[in-house]
């Protein structure tokens, strides 16, 4: 079945762009004359003739390689035509008035353009001749076919069908205690691509029952290109909910181990392809720090993955295809809108059920086809899908699921181009909706909007349409956010369709080959940056240079940006990432006349060349977190097409002059008010179309309210988040009335959702702050408004859910005015507030909580560092779950009545009182003598049954637990600064899993570990009298995973016999002056140990006899001179990562020959204060060594021996001044020994 009634060929949307350009008055006027007019008409006619056969060609390319070659040649020419027409149009727009003195230059460029166009016309003639020989059929183009989908929600509202029994089975395995004695169990879900493994895992992950069992959960997509660093970092970030800047695997794993320590966790590893045991082992090391009952759910297409998992596998669960009936439900829910009941529905359902039978039980296929047919109501459309020839293709010719290919074929042409463009992203990459739209816009993939719409809104419609058709899916990790992913099979489809025109590299090296036809380049991750740019020799026409990850640069060559900019003249998208060496943009950036998108986020750039202002077509300029950049180009107002300027977290001192001329700006995240008229706040009045988040800084430069009024903030109805910021240190001479007037004139539109006021210098707030007319405000922040004596009335904001108040240095009381104004007496104050945080209020004395009905849904209350606060907390908070009170030394108020309270922290607030002990509290953290004493008494009297985690700090009096027992339900105990605490050692504590003792229990000389049989984490620190650990030979600490003993000067030895910790993975020994040796027979005592850290243990001379743990991979040795001088390291031949840290006085040369284990992959030398010579003889036997880091070795100036190991890939030298100087000079005694290393980095700069 041909494609006469489907969306149309991908190239036809491209041709629409060309036709628009060919018809533009600028082009016609530039290439004027009878002969040249005919040339333009000829090219246009050629393209019109070719357009009508594109649909047939796109259909036949699947089975006919000659048609595919013909289509690729045409596609290549179309790209060239577009580049030429874009160049001519740009010249016409920028040179409308050409002076006589430059007319000859202009005419010369005109002649070049005409010559190029004549050449293109000749090549198109050849293409037309080949068209006849290929017998391509003409299929009318349906240019007026409606494409826009009916409005739909982006959330997955369609549900899951036919998987109830599957989910029930998985949930049973997840919730049951089936650990078989091990801490972590794995549940693999195995099934073919598109069968719904991720959907099922997502349903399990989001099930509310998990909250009752697991302390934390996280989801990470592993993907086919396995990267332990990336996956580990993702887990850390998801658990902590904040960015992680670590890139060292060892440090990342320690961080993850710390976060999982003592927790029962649930982790989903989605889309796993790893079949290598060592890779699995490396990834999952930190999991062992969790407690028994932790579960890992794995989705994979390959059952052999389950065979190499280094944990107990509960059961491999095979997920089969759906029945036709269930597959129909998936299809129908996407194909038929709930509110629609067309006259053909019965017939359509009958055809639909036949289509579903061809989906082979794959929900992804049914979902995709259903979404595509959702907007088709004619019977012919449905019959065409049912009878499509694609269903008949043999498997050898169709690696892509036929249903997905059919869904693609039915996309409108403009959506096809947008979808294929996404092949630049790596598999399983989470991309932002708004970011992708900017890229589409830069590549001219968006149709010019009608007057009432913006380009960005057109892009949103395209994006939402692709989501509704299941080409994109919401991110599982961030389902309610702006992040999306493509299913693997959709990604395969996009990659196949992109062909040679799209190039995506995960690793870039000399062997990399980029095709001449390639127009779009993306680079993902670079573990081994290359020093030359030879890879671009064959690619002269790329439009896209996209570095996916900010933190990794593909090049260690400082000249790379200059070479890229000067070589790739047709770029429309350019994104550089973090060049550890200083990034410098060349002046030739101004010659990139096609450039529309420039992203320099998180780079070291310090200055933008003024020539950048010549890039007429530039639409997007991103400069976020460029910490060295303090000013924008002087003539930035010349960028008349600029729509997006992002400078968040970049220290711009003031805006350039005449910014108001950039009236196309759609997105400006920050405006820094200048001191001059031409960069004052008035310039904002010329920017009426600002959207989204916007902050105005240095508001102290406004001298009168009329200036603020000219900014017309009230008229900017599309701003949803507004921050008004005055700088610190400008409080000397202030006219408070002017300050009030300024803030009053900065009143925003009433559709605002978030408001921040920082550093306001007035004594009171204007009436609009907190006015009930702001019904959409959900978040409000007041910070550093030092002159305000009272808070604004905020209680009548109906949607306010988050409120943060801090550093209001003149506020002494929170009273009735905070809750409501006189004219709002019937309103319940703060009806929607869920989170309230008040901190750093040095003069706040009283909280007059007069309204007992206030805060009906408040869940989280934080009060910190309010030293003069005496009382008046709310009496009753019915929804409160978390209460944190810290450093409020004078607070004498009672803790609010909170029947749902589960987490309570009181620190250095010893006068806080309790009406009664919160019986449901699970996590209790108390600091200070009075409060600790009260809590110990309360625990004695109440004997709480829900308490799971207890932290007690800083109590100097003699106290003890009731009956010499810990609370029966307790799983985690943290005690610090309780030196007179009598620790309960007479009874077993079966449930305790984590125990930390710091500077406490002074009478405790020996800890009987047998009383804590299920302990997973044990930390003993700063216990001066602790001498030993007691164990019984018949018992083993089978659950212990993490053990640290630090700063215990009298700790003499580990038990000589009976010590058995079969699941210990990490041992840390720090500052134990009298300890002479590690435990003997570590091979059998700690068979699973992977990490060993020894620091400042000067009496330890050697590693123990009897063998080292077979799984030991990482060893850190810090300031242990005797141990480093010993030659007996042969037993360490399983270690792959070693860190040696000083000062280690007296060690002048390192390492001695044959000292280090030959298995080393990475070696780190740090703070060796006496080290003068790095001895290559001691490194030559390290044939697996890939990375050598040398840091802060101030005296190091010599490299002895022949050369560093040939296996070495990276050499990083940091703050070694003598060695640095020699390397930069390429000293004859040094440079020949290191120059073979591919990546040499000195003080964060590649050499």
TrEMBL record:
> Which Pfam family, an example, fits this chain?
NB-ARC
rRNA-binding among keywords: no
InterPro entries given in the database record: Apaf_helical, LRR_dom_sf, LRR_R13L1-DRL21, NB-ARC, P-loop_NTPase, Rx_N, WH-like_DNA-bd_sf, WHD_DRP
User: One MF term from GO for this chain?
Assistant: ADP binding
Tell me where the transmembrane regions lie. none
Q: Which residues does the UniProt record annotate as the domain R13L1/DRL21-like LRR repeat region?
A: 681-808
Provide the alphabetized UniProt keywords: ATP-binding, Leucine-rich repeat, Nucleotide-binding, Plant defense, Repeat, Signal
- GO BP: defense response; response to other organism
**Residue span(s) of domain Disease resistance protein winged helix:** 424-494
Signal peptide boundaries:
1-19
Query: Domain NB-ARC: where?
Result: 165-337
Record-annotated Disease resistance N-terminal domain positions: 11-100
Keyword Nucleotide-binding present in the record's keywords: the answer is yes
**PANTHER family linked to this entry:** DISEASE RESISTANCE RPP13-LIKE PROTEIN 1 (PTHR36766:SF51), PLANT BROAD-SPECTRUM MILDEW RESISTANCE PROTEIN RPW8 (PTHR36766)
Q: Give the protein name, as stated in the record.
A: Disease resistance RPP13-like protein 1
Q: Which taxonomic lineage does the organism of this UniProt entry have?
A: Eukaryota, Viridiplantae, Streptophyta, Embryophyta, Tracheophyta
